[in-house]
Amino acid sequence: MSPQRIALIEAFRKQSEGLEKKYEARRHKSDRVMPYRLFRPEATGKLPLVMYLHGGGGLGDDNVKQLGLGNVFGTRVWLLPENQKRFPCFVVAPQTDSGWVKYDLSQDTAGPPKVLPGLGDGARLALEIIDRLLHEYAQEQSIDEHRIYVTGQSMGGAGVWHMTAQRQKLFAAAVACCAADTNENAVASLDTPLWNFHGDSDKSVPVGLSRERIAALRKTGGRPIYTEYAGVDHNVWQWAYTEPELVKWMFSQRRA
Question: What is residue 50's predicted lDDT score, i.e. its pLDDT?
Answer without folding.
Answer: 98
